[in-house]
Every structure is written in structure tokens, then in C-alpha cells.
Amino acid sequence: MAEPIEFWFDFSSPYSYLASERIDELAVKYGRKVKWRPVMLGAAFKVSGLPLLLTVPLKGEYSKRDIERSARFMDLPFAFPSRFPAATLAAARGYYWLHGQDCTLARKFAHAVFRAYWVDDCDIGELPVVLEIVDYLGIDSDAFMTAIATPAIKDRVKQETDAAIAQGMFGAPYFMVDGEPFWGADRLPQIDKWLATGGF
Amino acid sequence: MAEPIEFWFDFSSPYSYLASERIDELAVKYGRKVKWRPVMLGAAFKVSGLPLLLTVPLKGEYSKRDIERSARFMDLPFAFPSRFPAATLAAARGYYWLHGQDCTLARKFAHAVFRAYWVDDCDIGELPVVLEIVDYLGIDSDAFMTAIATPAIKDRVKQETDAAIAQGMFGAPYFMVDGEPFWGADRLPQIDKWLATGGF
After folding, report:
1. What's the pLDDT tens digit per position in A51-109?
2. Is B178 near chain A, with CB under 8 Å?
3. How many CB atoms lie within 10 A of CB A120?
4. Is B61 exposed, middle or buried (0-12, 13-18, 19+ CB in 10 A)?
5. Which of B88, B73, B176 lies closest to B125 in space, CA to CA?
6. Within an 8 Å CB–CB cutoff, is residue B169 touching chain A?
7. Out of B51, B70, B171, whose CB is closest to A59?
8. Is the pLDDT at B1 greater than 70, yes or no?
9. Residue B183 contacts A where some CB pair is shorter than 8 Å
10. Is the C or the N end of chain B the one with fewer CB within 10 Å?
11. CA distance A75 to chain B (A)
């Protein structure tokens, strides 16, 4: 069986949200699975020296418009959150803890976190907001809180982020498809063709 | 009649070359014309503070791969030039001089300059290379050389660049379609939908 597609993202990245709503259905067309990997994008920015996109003169203003238009282009609900960027460490840690127990539940959690932030304007940087999602999914919130404070889970996010950077990640979403890297929600059509043709 | 689509580019920008091969046929589907506007992208980088893409750690390496893959994705001939970036001032000045006399010839010249650099690895920053193109198109090369040294033509490139930056240009290709800005060859599908639907 072919290797899964790797999908690195930060919950605070708008284009990552857009991609998260489409990558699984794209992969399944070709009988492929997707490994979802939340990372801390700030660490990649330190390596590349790149500034936060929305703070760049001219490009920042354009990008806000492009994000909203790209959401409409992809027929996805979207509302730019009041507070941006969000601190996504708790959500990322929680994802890896959940993933260790139940992949499907972890995927549901990731979708819920993305949608809370990018559709419903809930600040996922606030722990109570994350815990509300946890509760809603029927997960034990005490166990969740204990888990995200353990050294193993804390290290996990750092390790995954370092591994992504080692694979060339400098922004998100970032994908690896059979050794070929793709960056951006706007590269989904290229990933589709790559999977359909085995590379072009 | 609807306004023409504005298309700002730098001959030294690989994604501009890719877009240059597709924008006219896209526009004509909707009975629209395209105003081609070579500019000095370096001036926009000064405003945005952005570095030259290919020099950014991680992102630079990815981008070279992405450019070559995007060319294949769009079924366009492409070979990364030995010398990059190229100085494109003479070609840009020549374009505006030609455009004042014969729009069609100016368009042919622009295509020839793009292809010389991005397909045939000719350094368009060298004046003899530009003059070879001029000769090939049956243009008087003495008149060309005289024209690109005139203050009016020199000012023109600066004015067009300033005008593009005033419209928000921070990278190339940059398009304006009925007041809506689009950046990147990868936004051609969005431009297509925009023209088809009158905005979305």
C-alpha cells in the first residue's frame, strides 16, 4: 500500500483550514490516507526569517482579501477571526494525545478546532474554548488537561515541528506526497494531478 | 465595453512568464482585453520589505521546485536560466516605446523576451540579447536604442511601477480585474471564475 500523504498545519493558519476541508476527500479518490500533523508555524518562520504574512506592507492587505476570496472559491464557510493569530499550542498538544488513543476522534477534534476559529470566531488560544470542543466530542476534559501538561506530549509538538522543518516546511499547509513537497491550499489541484498520474 | 484586465509583470519573474502564456486566451473567452505592463519588481520589494523569493531559507529551495513543477502542470516549456535574476530595464523600456507605436508588435516583443529568458536561457539583461529579439521582429534596432535612452521612456517605466504599487502590487504577476486584485499565476483559475460569474 502507498504511503500516506503528510499534511502539516497550524490551527492558526487560514490556508491550512481551507486545505483541511478538502485534503481527505482528495486522497480518498486515490485510495490514499492522510497523516495530519499540527505544528508550530512560528518555529518555521524563525528558520526562514519570514514575517507573519498579514503584517507585510501591501502583501498583508492583499492576503486577507485573497484568503476570504479563496474560501468562497472553494465553497467553504469562512469568517476572519477577531483575534489573530491565535496561540495553538494547547490544541496541537491535545491533538497528539487524542491521536495516540483514537485517530478518528483526533481528526474530528482537529476539524472542530479549525472550524471554531475560522468559521465561528472562537479564540482557540483560550483553554476554555478548547475544553468546550473536548466536552462536545465526549472526551474527558480532566484527562485532556492532564495529558497536555505532560512532558511527553509537550515534546511531541516540538519533535513534529522540527521534523516538518527538516522536510522543508516553511509555511502551511505543507504536504509531502511520495517525496514531493507541496505548499498551500492552492496546490491541491497539483496534488490531485500528482496522485492521478504518479508525478508529472 | 468592459475595462481591460491589467497585467503587471517583471520579465525576470518566473510566475509572470507562466501567466503571460495563458492570460490572453483566458481573457478572450470573456471578450476581454489585457493591458500588459512590465514593471520593476525590485521597487515593490523595497516597499514591502520582502526579500527575493529564491534567497529565502527553505522557501527558496521549495520555490525553484514549485516553479518547474507549475510549468509542467500548465504544459509550458521551461528551463531555469543560468543567470538569475536578470536586469530587465532595457526590455521594459523597449516594450513601452514599441507599445506607443504598435500594440501587437509590443505583445510579440514581450512574449519573445519572456521565452528567450525562461525557455532558451538567454540573458535578457544583456542589451545584445534584447537587440537580437528586436532584429528578429523586424524592428529598427538603432531607433530602439535611441528610444530607450530618452527621458520620457525612462520615466514611463518608473511611472508604471509606481502606479502598480499604488494599486497594491507587491509581487508578480499581479492582475486587476474589475477592481479586484489577483496575485500569482496560480490565481488564473480564480480570475476565470471571476470573469465567468462577475465576481464571487
Report:
1. 888 888 889 999 999 999 999 999 999 999 999 999 999 999 999 999 999 999 999 99
2. no
3. 13
4. middle
5. B88
6. yes
7. B171
8. no
9. yes
10. N
11. 10
- The string of pLDDT tens digits covering residues B78-134 is 999 999 999 999 999 999 999 999 999 999 999 999 999 999 999 999 999 999 999
Distance between CA A164 and CA A176 in Å, rounded? 10
pTM above 0.90, yes or no: yes
User: Which residue shows C-alpha cell 534584447?
Assistant: B130
For residues B2-24, give the mean pLDDT: 97
Q: Distance (Å, rounded) from C-alpha A133 to C-alpha A85?
A: 19
The grid cell for B102 is 504598435
More confident residue, A189 or A54: A189
Chain A contact present for B50, CB below 8 A:
yes
| A122: closest CA of chain B, how far (Å) | 26
Secondary structure of A137-155 as H, E, C letters: CCCCHHHHHHHHCCHHHHH
